[in-house]
Design brief:
Layout lengths: L1 H6 L7 H13 L4 H10 L6 H21 L7 E11 L2 E10 L4 E7 L4 H15 L4 E4 L3 H12 L6 E4 L5 H14 L8 H18 L13 H8 L2
Parallel strand pairs: 1-4, 4-5
Antiparallel strand pairs: 1-2, 2-3
Length: 229
């Protein structure tokens, strides 16, 4: 797994052990101490702080690689934001999916306003292209952000405000919340960004969004390890 060898200057553990521990932590409702115990049962002694360092270093690198092989998404988006607790304070995770439930993009922000929504839309458009239609809830901030985008374009984005249609992205939030609940809140904004990127990566692989030339017929776990190769 050359990606892991490039990411870490010194390797005191086999690369397959590092990859497996990182995947377990991002994919399942396990604490770092849970994984420490599970590896000890397999004869591998690794401290939970070392496991945490592996996840923090590897998750953003893997996310970057996945974006190179991301399957094209639809042009009809469902966008919404959800709450994430960091150091005891609520922050906001903006997310969007297409009509098939594929993840478009995500962005963690300190504020919930038009500027934050505009940052999210610009980031998503850079990654996935401009949508034809965006469905949002009754949020005035999201409406204002889309109005700014449309003001700069000859062919604007159609904006729909329909809470019922937005259930798709609201339900998708649950997959992220289910994984972060055992973490009992994040300790820093930067760590939250890194871990959320890793968790989103796992969900995108599960949804079949990895379009790697060697990934045909592989399980989600095997596709994850392919990214690290």
């Amino acid at each position: 797994m050359s990606l892991i060898r490039k990411t870490f200057k010194r390797l005191h553990y086999p690369v397959d052990v590092i990859a497996q521990c990182v995947r377990w932590y991002l994919a399942y409702a396990l604490s770092l101490r849970n994984i420490e115990e599970m590896m000890a049962e397999r004869g591998i002694v690794v401290d939970h702080s070392t496991l945490h360092r592996w996840v923090i270093r590897l998750a953003p690198v893997l996310n970057t690689v996945l974006r190179r092989y991301q399957r094209p998404v639809g042009r009809r988006w469902r966008m919404d934001e959800t709450y994430i607790k960091i150091r005891g304070h609520w922050k906001y995770l903006y997310r969007a999916v297409d009509t098939d439930g594929q993840t478009i993009d995500f962005l963690l922000t300190a504020n919930r306003d038009a500027n934050a929504a505009l940052r999210f839309f610009r980031k998503a458009i850079r990654q996935c292209g401009k949508p034809e239609v965006v469905t949002i809830d009754k949020s005035g901030a999201n409406t204002a952000a889309l109005a700014v985008l449309n003001a700069d374009q000859a062919e604007g984005i159609t904006v729909r405000q329909n809470k019922y249609l937005n259930n798709l992205v609201e339900q998708d939030h649950r997959n992220i919340k289910r994984r972060i609940r055992p973490m009992l809140g994040f300790k820093s904004f930067r760590r939250a960004q890194t871990l959320l990127a890793g968790i989103e990566l796992i969900q995108m692989i599960r949804k079949g969004q990895l379009q790697h030339p060697q990934g045909e017929g592989l399980s989600p776990a095997e596709q994850f390890y392919l990214l690290a190769a």
